[in-house]
Amino acid sequence: IGQRAIYTLPAHLRSRLTGLFIAVFFAGGAAGSAFASPAFAAGGWPWVTWAGFALPILALLAFAGEFGRRR
């Protein structure tokens, strides 16, 4: 979901969902920093790159598993 979808909703929902949207993006940035710092300390930029590659793959696998259960 993106900001465009949020702005098509009624006004009383927009402010709440916009706040949630921003909070989730902030949490994602904080989690990325939490993973990147130890990865850089352990193996430099190659490990940061692999960590950045692995996290979306894990999210995709979690999504695919959940999607498979719903069918």
Q: Work out the count of structural domains.
A: 1
Please mark out the parts with pLDDT under 50 across 5 or more consecutive residues, or reply none. Answer: none
Rounded average pLDDT: 88
> With helices defined by DSSP (H or I, 4 residues minimum), what is the helix count?
2
Radius of gyration: 16 Å
Distance between the termini: 22 Å
Biggest sheet statistics: none
Helicity, in percent? over 70%
Q: Can you tell me the overall shape?
A: flat
Structure description:
The chain has helices at residues 3-6, 11-70. The protein is flat and about 50 Å long. It is 90% helix and 0% strand. The protein contains two helices and no strands. With 71 residues, it is mainly alpha-helical. It starts with a helix and ends with a helix. The model has no long low-confidence stretch (mean pLDDT 88). The chain has one domain (3-70).
